[in-house]
Amino acid sequence: MPPLAAVPDLDRELDELYDLPLDDWTRARNDLAARLKKAHQSEQAEQVKALRKPTAATWAVNQLARRSDKGVAKLLEAGEQLRKTQERALGGRASAADVSAAAKEERDAIRELVAAARSILEAAGNAATPATLDRITETLRTAAVDDAGRELLARGRLDEELSGAGFGSLAAVKLAPRPRTDERKAARERVNALRADARRLTKEAREAEAEADRLERDADEARAAANAKRGEADTAATQLAEAEAALKA
User: Is 195 within 8 Å of 168 (Cβ atoms)?
Assistant: First the structure.
């Protein structure tokens, strides 16, 4: 029996797979793998079969590429700018203010996307818990400065949450030549020290940002609860005034 025709446009089918609701994902993946196997595309079938079902956080991030593509493009641009600014700062060609401004652009882009992801989750009937939103934030922050993550984020094909973004290409930064060995050694030691400080401070900044995001969500919830209590208090005050007026009458 001759081989069946190849599955048409596998790339498009993968895009459609990652666009599906989470409840349909595993069945559709297995179906695609089975069709590939029947078409004697065993290698592709195994690759598809090995794809992991996205978590709720990863699924929401993937949907951003389809429903908030401008926001994703804004984040990728901000992430690239931040990485370049950090590299220039290590070489003494950018100031702390430059790094701070670039980091703010990235944070603003992430905040907008997290809000969009929350809406996507809730519309699909999935819980947008603080833990899930934290994982979305970290995945976006990591993907923004990681080469492989950037491509998967842009295409909406992440199959796992990302975390622990480092400086990536900063390891390739080279010292400028120096005429004397002792000066080169001192410069190298200074760059190494600065790199270690930058990595430590960036990690602390990311942790502080994540905590700030969590506190901001908690504040929103507390504000909503306070507004509800204020409404109840106003209602009680109105009822009291009416009761006192009736008593006097």
Answer: no
pTM over 0.70: no
User: Are 55 and 162 spatial neighbours (Cβ–Cβ below 8 Å)?
Assistant: no
> d(Cα 165, Cα 159) in Å, to the nearest integer?
17
What is the tally of helices (H) and strands (E) in the chain?
9, 0
Residue pair 136/122 in contact (Cβ under 8 Å)? The answer is: no
Question: What distance in Å separates the CA atoms of residue 76 and residue 82, rounded to the nearest whole number?
Answer: 10
pLDDT tens digits, one per residue of 133-164: 999 999 999 998 888 889 999 999 998 998 86
Cβ–Cβ contacts within 10 Å for residue 53, how many?
11
CB 125 within 8 A of CB 50: no
CA 194, 198, 199, 201 dihedral sign is: positive
Is residue 169 within 8 Å of 145, Cβ to Cβ? no
Q: What is the chain's length?
A: 249
Q: How many Å from the N-terminal Cα to the C-terminal Cα in the chain?
A: 99
